């Protein structure tokens, strides 16, 4: 098999430097027309295929945006990645995907990062970084954007976690529930600094309604539907179980619903359940939730990254709205329940 043709081969045939060849092939304005024509003639004669790395030599860019995600199988990350990819593709750029997967992959990624300037911007989807990781990101000298979290003073897009939590808990309070459980989801390996907003919303909503906070009604579990099922089991084991449950994500909420039904309890007749996200399964299972625009967060992050590359002003913080979606998993508590006359 013949060796692939590279930019140096084109430059040699056209009798120009590789930098000039790169500028000519990328239609840089500061290249004489005769030189541009000669370079393109050489490229056609050699059947040269422009690579992102070669075409970026003259302008110091690669034409790519790196996207770093901790999960690929979870709904939010997939939806955000799809929204981002659509915008980047329409702009004629390429996406370079890094899947961290677990704590070891995360450590390896940040350890090797300074030597891997393979993109013009980095977008982090749905996880925070510590000071050392942020310093490594900043060291490679590219634009940094985050979606679903904040990274220092770099541009970011997210929902207001506190507002989303209040929408969910206030809905249960307005229905008349006073004994409300909360299932907190954690992902300690990949994001030890979980956003506090959803939990803070629960505590302040109860306080504003004059309801005493009972720590026994809060259960923390690793993220998964199975975790939600286990947490619901713990709440049902209390001497005074909740009449409603607020889960931090829809998938965890659906795990809780499964446990309730296996226990012979009706949802919402005996216990109401609400989540956050508006996962596609929420509509199919009639789960009340707070919808967040996952794909739009990815799209906004992509536009921020592209604007950064173009040297255009970027809004430092974009907060997208959430909305309460009332379905069949929430209702007023049954009469006779404590606190209900």
UniProtKB/TrEMBL annotation:
InterPro entries: HTH_LacI, LacI/GalR-like_sensor, Lambda_DNA-bd_dom_sf, Peripla_BP_I. Gene3D superfamilies: 3.40.50.2300, lambda repressor-like DNA-binding domains. SMART domains: HTH_LACI. Keywords: DNA-binding, Transcription, Transcription regulation. CDD domains: HTH_LacI (cd01392), PBP1_LacI_sugar_binding-like (cd06267). Residues 5-59 form the HTH lacI-type domain. Pfam families: LacI, Peripla_BP_3. It comes from the Bacteria. GO terms for molecular function: DNA-binding transcription factor activity; transcription cis-regulatory region binding. SUPFAM superfamilies: lambda repressor-like DNA-binding domains, Periplasmic binding protein-like I. The keyword Cell membrane does not apply. Transmembrane segments: none annotated. The keyword Transcription regulation applies. This is DNA-binding LacI/PurR family transcriptional regulator.
């Amino acid at each position: 098999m013949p060796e692939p043709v590279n930019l140096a081969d084109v430059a040699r045939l056209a009798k120009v430097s590789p930098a000039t060849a790169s500028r000519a092939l990328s239609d840089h304005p500061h290249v004489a027309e005769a030189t541009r024509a000669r370079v393109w003639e050489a490229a056609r004669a050699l059947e040269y295929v422009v690579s992102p790395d070669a075409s970026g030599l003259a302008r110091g860019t690669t034409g790519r945006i790196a996207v770093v995600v901790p999960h690929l199988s979870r709904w939010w990350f997939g939806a955000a990645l799809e929204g981002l990819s659509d915008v980047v593709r329409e702009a004629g750029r390429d996406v370079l995907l890094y899947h961290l997967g677990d704590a070891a992959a995360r450590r390896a990624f940040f350890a090797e990062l300074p030597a891997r300037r393979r993109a013009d911007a980095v977008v982090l989807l749905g996880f925070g970084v510590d000071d050392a990781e942020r310093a490594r990101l900043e060291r490679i000298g590219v634009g940094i954007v985050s979606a679903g979290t904040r990274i220092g003073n770099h541009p970011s897009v997210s929902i207001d976690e506190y507002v989303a939590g209040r929408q969910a808990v206030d809905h249960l309070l307005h229905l008349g529930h006073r004994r409300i459980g909360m299932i907190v989801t954690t992902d300690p390996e990949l994001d030890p600094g979980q956003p506090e907003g959803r939990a803070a919303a629960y505590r302040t909503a109860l306080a504003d309604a004059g309801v005493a906070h009972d720590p026994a009604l809060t259960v923390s579990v690793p993220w998964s539907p199975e975790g939600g099922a286990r947490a619901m089991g713990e709440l049902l084991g209390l001497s005074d179980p909740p009449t409603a449950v607020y889960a931090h994500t829809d998938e965890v909420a659906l795990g809780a619903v499964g446990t309730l039904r296996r226990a012979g309890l009706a949802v919402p007749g005996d216990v109401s359940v609400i989540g956050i996200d508006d996962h596609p399964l929420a509509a199919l299972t009639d789960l009340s939730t707070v919808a967040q625009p996952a794909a739009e967060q990815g799209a906004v992050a992509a536009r921020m990254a592209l604007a950064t590359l173009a040297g255009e002003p970027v809004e430092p913080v974009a907060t997208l709205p959430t909305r309460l979606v009332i379905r069949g998993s929430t209702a007023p508590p049954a009469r006779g329940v404590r606190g209900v006359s």
